[in-house]
Design a protein that fits this description.
Largest sheet: 4 strands, antiparallel
Distance between the termini: 125 Å
Radius of gyration: 35 Å
Strand order of the largest sheet: 1-4-5-6
Helix content: 10-25%
Number of strands: 7
Structural class: alpha+beta
Strand content: 25-35%
Number of helices: 3
Length: about 140
């Protein structure tokens, strides 16, 4: 009987996941898009804009989404509501001048030309050129 209790205790202890291993399994690595967002579970969460192009780790802790870079917590968002596509970080774009985010204008593909000058002539001139009677 004592042996059965020991086996049950060992099995119960083995069934508990290692918190460090469990957390590592639930961590997702993703690259930050150029617009300062990272995708997780179909939702785009914002991160500080200086991390555009960098790889971050995303982890869900309860009802919050935590985003890390090199082990440092960058952002903590509440889990998105159904139908929500974007979660914004407060102050993500502060200090960014509007002129630095505008695109450089391209050269036009076409050029508009003015109407050609058309001579206005009577029909009798065309009759003479055709060499016949047009009536």
């Amino acid at each position: 009987m004592f042996l059965i209790h020991i086996i049950i205790a060992i099995v119960n202890d083995m069934a508990k996941p290692d918190p460090v291993l469990y957390r590592a399994l639930l961590t997702v690595r993703s690259k930050v898009y150029r617009d300062g967002y990272v995708a997780y579970d179909g939702i785009r969460y914002s991160v500080p804009r200086i991390l555009c192009g960098q790889v971050v780790e995303i982890r869900q802790e309860g009802l919050a989404i935590e985003i890390f870079h090199n082990g440092e917590l960058l952002a903590r968002h509440p889990q998105a509501l159904p139908g929500q596509r974007l979660c914004h970080l407060v102050g993500q774009w502060t200090g960014l001048a509007a002129s630095s985010v505008t695109k450089r204008l391209r050269e036009p593909f076409a050029q508009q030309i003015t109407e050609p000058a058309v001579a206005v002539r009577s029909l009798s001139e065309y009759e003479l050129l055709a060499g016949g009677d047009c009536s």
